[in-house]
Q: What sequence folds into this?
């Protein structure tokens, strides 16, 4: 499951694969008759040669204010809002299935959603929902044990210090490689830590205050919380200063630094890499791709130099920060105040149902998707859409054949590319197996971590197998 802060912390590992995805959620007479371009949304008083964007969208912008609980708003947001309402109705039906068989899709979805909607239980539990993880951190006696906890938390989807996972090999798209990526910071990217201007300095000041406030909510006294926040900021700043810039991140071939385990150990010798890989899986990944060599060299230095007690503070912050939206309202509200209100400009927090629907969809997208398509996207409709895309491909081929300016050799290359175009409509032909995922009604945050850990091992299980080009990587983001 990916949240906003996880995106901040773990830059996308995915190599972009452009596919044709069509999501059709409803079919009505109104939808059939509605024009593709609505003149009432255009501002015809604007000269399109001066400002085509305002010409095409001016009246829509004037007539659609950004809702208080959002920092942006567009046509996809409107569609997502409709989707979320449909998913909510579906989840409300599932929660009534009190006799759902243990281990069934309905039981897992029911208990996951119910655990997120049970605000009374969440409020009563407070930070105790995370106590198992906090106790594990508090008991760390050495730097070696710290590294064990880092690995364990990676399986939970918390990603302290750095990130890692399987992606297609940049040099051979038929196989997977394990990529190590920069991560471990609480602000969106390195520039927030390194830029010297008034706004950036304000953000850093407010961030330290936010971290301290979260430590206080956890139970620390004000002085300890302030000291802890400064420790966190110092560690994250070192990580950020040694991270690639946004411009450097655009150099995708520059990510491809293949290293054997022994070479990686030599490069970043302060961290026990054999121990790490043994902790996250029993798979031998062979050579790994170190996307940011400078960053990982510094990780090795930091692990040797920074006292274990400081690392324990950092891990505590990482755990609380990544879990805040699943905890009691004092954590949720403080988290919203900094990340959504101060950083992003949202004025109101989304209602609980909408937040929990989003988390449920992210954590259990395919099981929920199975129930969703049964209600909203029958096989007959999918068949029609597959046929429609087939006609589009035929039309494109005809257009290519009739292009006078394109050489025959280029046309043949275009035809070959057209034949290889992947078409993924609505939902996969084969659903993922979630039978080993265990969900209980006991704790929202623990259910999120259970789902993350299930996804972690399921993801790593792809290693050594051919890349599944038919796999649908998208959830119902715009359905």
A:
């Amino acid at each position: 499951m990916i949240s906003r802060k996880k995106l901040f912390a773990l830059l996308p590992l995915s190599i972009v694969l452009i596919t044709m995805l069509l999501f059709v959620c409803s079919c009505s007479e109104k939808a059939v008759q509605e024009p593709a371009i609505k003149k009432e949304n255009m501002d015809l008083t604007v000269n399109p040669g001066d400002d085509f964007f305002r010409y095409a969208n001016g009246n829509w912008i004037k007539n659609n204010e950004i809702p208080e609980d959002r920092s942006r708003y567009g046509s996809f947001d409107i569609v997502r809002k409709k989707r979320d309402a449909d998913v909510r109705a579906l989840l409300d039906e599932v929660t009534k299935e009190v006799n759902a068989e243990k281990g069934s899709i309905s039981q897992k979805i029911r208990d996951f959603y119910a655990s997120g909607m049970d605000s009374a239980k969440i409020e009563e539990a407070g930070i105790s929902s995370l106590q198992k993880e906090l106790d594990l951190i508090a008991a760390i006696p050495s730097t070696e044990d710290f590294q064990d906890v880092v690995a364990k938390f990676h399986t939970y989807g918390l990603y302290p210090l750095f990130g890692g996972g399987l992606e297609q090999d940049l040099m051979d798209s038929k196989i997977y490689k394990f990529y190590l990526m920069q991560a471990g910071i609480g602000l969106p990217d390195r520039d927030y830590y390194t830029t010297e201007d008034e706004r950036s300095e304000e953000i850093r000041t407010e961030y330290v205050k936010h971290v301290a406030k979260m430590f206080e909510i956890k139970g620390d006294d004000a002085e300890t919380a302030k000291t802890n926040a400064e420790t966190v900021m110092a560690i994250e700043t070192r990580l950020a200063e040694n991270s690639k810039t946004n411009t450097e991140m655009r150099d995708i071939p520059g990510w491809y630094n293949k290293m054997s385990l022994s070479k990686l150990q030599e490069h970043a010798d302060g961290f026990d890499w054999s121990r790490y890989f043994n902790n996250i899986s029993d798979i031998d990944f062979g050579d790994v791709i170190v996307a940011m060599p400078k960053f990982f060299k510094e990780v090795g230095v930091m692990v040797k130099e920074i006292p274990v007690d400081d690392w324990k503070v950092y891990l505590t912050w990482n755990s609380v920060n990544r879990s805040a939206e699943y905890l009691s309202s004092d954590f949720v509200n403080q988290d919203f105040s900094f990340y959504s209100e101060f950083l992003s400009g949202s004025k109101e927090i989304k209602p609980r149902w909408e937040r929990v629907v989003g988390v449920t969809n992210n954590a259990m997208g395919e099981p929920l998707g199975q129930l969703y398509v049964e209600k909203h996207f029958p096989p007959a409709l999918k068949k029609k859409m597959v046929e429609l895309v087939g006609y589009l491909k035929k039309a494109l081929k005809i257009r290519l054949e009739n292009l006078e300016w394109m050489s025959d050799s280029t046309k043949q290359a275009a035809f070959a590319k057209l034949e290889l175009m992947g078409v993924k409509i609505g939902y996969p032909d084969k659903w993922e197996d979630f039978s080993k995922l265990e969900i209980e009604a006991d704790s929202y945050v623990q259910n999120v971590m259970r789902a993350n850990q299930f996804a972690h091992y399921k993801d790593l299980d792809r290693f050594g197998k051919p890349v599944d080009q038919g796999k649908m990587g998208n959830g119902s983001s715009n359905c």
In short: Residues 4-29+69-376+429-460 form a domain with the Neutral endopeptidase; domain 2 fold (CATH 1.10.1380.10). The longest strand covers residues 172-182.
